[in-house]
Amino acid sequence: MRMRPTLSWTPTEDLLPGTTSLAPVADALSAGGVLVLSGAGISTESGIPDYRGEGGSLSRHTPMTYQEFTAEALARRRYWARSHLGWRTFGRARPNAGHRAVAAFGRHGLLAGVITQNVDGLHQSAGSESVVELHGSLERVVCLSCGAFSPRRELARRLERANPGFEPVAAGTNPDGDADLTDEQVGDFQVVPCADCGGTLKPDVVFFGEAVPPQRVERCRELVREAASLLVLGSSLTVMSGLRFVRQAAQAGKPVLIVNRDPTRGDRHAVTRVTLPLGTALTTVAGRLEIPVVPVDGQVAG
Question: How many Å separate Cα 256 from the centre of its chain?
Answer without folding.
Answer: 19
